Amino acid sequence: MDKLISWHQEFYQQRDFKPDECVPLYKLRPTKKEFEALTSVLRAFVAERTPFMSVNTIIDTCPLFNKLFVLYAAEWWKRKYSGGHWTWKHIIDDLGIEEDEITPQKRSVCVSRGLSRWNLKIADTSGKRFLGAIAIQGGLPIHFLTSQEGNIYRVLERLVKHAEGAEVSSSRLETWAEELQYFLPHTYRKKEIYALLAQVVEVLFNIKRKASDQTTKAILAEWRSNHSKWLTELPITAPYEEIDRLISKLLGVVAATNEKRTISDDFLTIHRNLIINDKGRLTCKGIIEIAGTISAEQLLNKFNYKVPENNPFVLNVQLSIGSYDEHLTLHSVIGNSKYSSSVKSIQIREEAFFDQIIFSTFALQI
């Protein structure tokens, strides 16, 4: 127990962080050395106690164990998860705990109590709720960043462009990230990953807001002169040079966005890409992006559709892609005759990757 207390105290001493603060655990930035020491301390604590008490009893009687376990688990996810089935097995294996030594119910109690000791609550995630809460606290897995940098950039770039500099809620960003899941390996197509990618975009726009002006030069200067501060906001752990390369490219995209939404000349844009799939093979991925707003005049000029004079609130759109159809719902923008879509991306089915996409057959109905 003394070693747990000592590690905990030293961890706080190394940070400007108060016990009553409430921040995501990834902002605490445990070092590799600290993570290894924490793993060793927790493993030794379990080994010392289990000869005369169960792991379930440890959870019931040692609040500090619960607190440090969730920090350990969040760091394990970030540092060691490399894709595949989501499971607690490897997380507890590294502490010398067998799966049958801790019940799922008690493990959930451990996570809930542990997070509460950090003044945190269970995130609203679907499926594996408690494992999902740990993932949110850990940040983006390092293996995901190193193996999928190109695809991560594609998703983040599109999220930035979708936002167009406007105030966009986290939930909307997460929805858009999910629409772009086809750029990601199957094992990373998870709600928690979408939430963490959305957090990156929020930080990018915060950097833009703090810059002395809205030029690319000023925005990059804000990032680089205050990178220590901004790094703690990002759910990313990697060498600074790698993070700087990714963030600098994205800030260039951010600088190009307008603070107000504008009518897009390219309301619908087709992207066709070759993506390396989970098996290391090239596969065709295509999406149609729906950006900004479209005016009644553009609907007439581009799609030969005349919006009725009463400007209906909803327009139902049919888009023909090869041998199948996709449907969009456009909502009018209050106060004018423009329309926008909450859906920002539509996947092109692989079998229709090379098919013609016919815009002239749009069917808009009131």
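The above is record 1. Record 2 follows with the same two-line structure.
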Amino acid sequence: MGHYENGIFTRKEIIKVCKWLFYEQGYHETSYSDICRLAHVNRGTLYYHFSSKEDMRYEVQWEYIIGFKNIAQRYCIEPQYQYLLAMCIFWKKIHEDEKLRRFQLQICMDYPVYTGKKDMTYFYYTIYEAMWGAFWEKKNISQLAFSSAYGFVTGCLRMMCEYPEKYDPVDMFMHCVGSSAAIWGIPEEKISKIWPHIRSCMEKIPEEEMYINFVDGREDEAPVKTTS
């Protein structure tokens, strides 16, 4: 039991360090040596928990989504909208935060197309059910259609990261939502309520609460807060 608990602690510490390094100095700019030094582990321990630095990036991305989902569920009691709202908040913070933009831009540059492989692009395939499952089952979408939407969204996100002054993040996100739905063949009546609902929820969230700690450990699951 002690070894298991120590293993969990070590893994969390590695993720915590990666979260700090990838945010503060950049994913590409971070070396294995940097991670080992700050996490106080050797290469063997690092590889035991993560087969590659890419796996660490995947974990950090999930950390961000969990954090924003915790915010979303305080202001949106309908579970089918919570991940969509979380991603909308995420895009807003990417737009505002230069260091977060760099982290996301590097993902866009490294993975501009979806190939179906279990790499960083698979993150978006995995989160599909949480974001869209209530509106359209994944089985109704071909790999080609998913690849088309992924490429479109990645291109838009990259444009926003490179030229933040030109784009409104919420409008850009909802543009991607509508375009993805069209590519996937989701009937208009199934998504017609998404935009006004997301916009309404965004207006309820105080600016100071649209924040997660980008450089600390895993966000605790937040209780659901009901709002009128």
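The chain has two domains: 2-53, 57-209.
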